[in-house]
Design brief:
Blueprint: E1 4-7, E2 10-13, E3 18-24, E4 32-37, E5 44-49, E6 56-58, E7 66-71, E8 76-81, E9 90-96, E10 99-100, E11 107-108, E12 112-113, E13 117-122
Parallel strand pairs: 2-13
Antiparallel strand pairs: 1-3, 3-8, 4-5, 4-9, 5-6, 7-8, 9-12, 9-13, 10-11
């Protein structure tokens, strides 16, 4: 099993920034990404990065505001979140081994999840 632990969430005002981290027991063998889940909603794709970090993809709602990156030497995944909006409020989950959806700009999650970290954006 791949162990994933998120950190960096918190409360921030609209327009502010947060940087989420995901520490993993191993990371270099997987494409990894972030998904979010708002109360009462299904878990949704946010961003993904390829195994070597050369390719990234984002949901339309966060494009231009969020940046995903990874440091394989540290077994750590990051999500830099800028220009945050109240609509970004959700629990954010780290995920390993996501696969692309052939029908649109989205991804299916892999089998490995972290516990999630809460992001709350106030107006």
């Amino acid at each position: 099993q791949v162990q994933l632990v998120e950190s960096g969430g918190g409360l921030v005002q609209a327009g502010g920034s947060l940087r989420l981290s995901c520490a993993a027991s191993t990371l270099s063998s997987f494409s990894v990404g972030w998904f979010l889940q708002a109360p009462g909603q299904e878990r949704e794709f946010v961003a993904v990065i390829s195994r070597r970090g050369g390719d990234t993809d984002y949901s339309t709602s966060v494009w231009g505001r969020f940046t995903i990156s990874r440091d394989n030497a540290k077994n750590t995944l990051y999500l830099q979140m800028n220009s945050l909006k109240p609509e970004d409020t959700a629990v954010y989950y780290c995920n390993a081994d996501a696969t692309i959806c052939p029908y649109g700009s989205s991804w299916f999650p892999g089998d490995y999840w972290g516990q999630g970290t809460q992001v709350t954006v106030s107006s």
